[in-house]
C-alpha cells in the first residue's frame, strides 16, 4: 500500500475530513487511506474572496473544510454559478466554470477547487487587476487523495 506523507511545521494547522488539527512541533503525517485535507497555508480566507471567482472558490473550499456544511455550501454554489455564467463573456472563464461544476457533479471537489484557482488570473486580467497569485498563493496542497495515486 502506498502512502501520502506530509510535513507540518510547529503551530501549523491542517483540515482533515472537516476536523482542524494543530501540531505543537514539526511533525510528519502519513495518510494510509483516502482522506480530504487542506493545509492552513493554502486556505483562502473569507477576506480574500473579493471577486466573483474567488467567492466561488471560497464556497467550494468550504465543501472540503466543513463536510457537515457541504450541503449549504453546495446550495450557495448552485445559486452563484448561473450568475457567474451570465456575467462572464470570456470563453475561457465560462469553460472553466463549466468544468468546475461538472467536477462537483462527479464529487471531485478538490479538482473543482484547482480548476477554479486556475481562473483567478484570467478574472484578474478581465477586471484589470494585477494577479495576486505570486504574492498571495492560494494553491491547494492536497485534496481527496488515495495515497500518492493523485487526487481522486
Amino acid at each position: 500500500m502506498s502512502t501520502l506523507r506530509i510535513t507540518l511545521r510547529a503551530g501549523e494547522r491542517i483540515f482533515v475530513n472537516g476536523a482542524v488539527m494543530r501540531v505543537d512541533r514539526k511533525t510528519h503525517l502519513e495518510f494510509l487511506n483516502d482522506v480530504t485535507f487542506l493545509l492552513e497555508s493554502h486556505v483562502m480566507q473569507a477576506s480574500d474572496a473579493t471577486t466573483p471567482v474567488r467567492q466561488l472558490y471560497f464556497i467550494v473550499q468550504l465543501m472540503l473544510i466543513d463536510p457537515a456544511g457541504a450541503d449549504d455550501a453546495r446550495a450557495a454554489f448552485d445559486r452563484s454559478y448561473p450568475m457567474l455564467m451570465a456575467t462572464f463573456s470570456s470563453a475561457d472563464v465560462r469553460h472553466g466554470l463549466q468544468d468546475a461544476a461538472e467536477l462537483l457533479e462527479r464529487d471531485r471537489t478538490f479538482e473543482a477547487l484547482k480548476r477554479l484557482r486556475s481562473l483567478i488570473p484570467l478574472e484578474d486580467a478581465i477586471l484589470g487587476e494585477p494577479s495576486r497569485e505570486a504574492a498571495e498563493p492560494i494553491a491547494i496542497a492536497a485534496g481527496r487523495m488515495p495515497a500518492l495515486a493523485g487526487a481522486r
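Strands lie at 4-8, 13-16, 19-22, 27-31, 35-39, 144-145. Residues 4-42+137-145 form one domain.
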